Amino acid sequence: MRLSLITSLLLAFALTATVIATAFFFGFLPAPRIAGASPSPFPSGFVFPTPTPAVTATPEVTPEPASAEPTAQPTAGGTYVVQPGDSLTLIGEQFGIPWQLIAEANGIEPPNYVIQPGQELVIPPLPQPSDGSEIYVVQSGDSVIGIAEQFGVDPTDLADFNNLADWNSIQPGQILYIPGPGWTPLPLETPEE
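Structure (tokenized):
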């Protein structure tokens, strides 16, 4: 109750001060005379004329013709200098690789994964399988079943191919290998008796 009364009084005071300042500014109220100050040579309410800017010709800017070459996207396998406002996530998205690989390649430690502007980072290439499988980087909201449907593979094969005991354990940025055609799981070894 007391706080709202104080707030209301402060707001009323601020509104009154704004109205009075506006009235002085536009000459509705005469400016107070200060003892010892020289009087203004201008009559009360005098408005200073604003000079009219000289009109100059504006050069016509002809747009450059569109280049037939597409803008090159940055690729992994090189280095990158950290810019102000960068994060490992943004850099990973820019290069199309999981930020965790960048952190690992540069020895950037958890839990904060601190990078500094001006720091040069090694951008590792995505590991490429030699067995005909494809690579997929897990995105937020992905599931083993959804990824398997996207690539037309059996979810169990996808989990087995990536040694996933718990299908719910995949994380954004994780690399999964999509089994190539003709892949069959290795037979389970049975102990000899």
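Residues 2-25 form the longest helix (24 residues). The radius of gyration is 34 Å.
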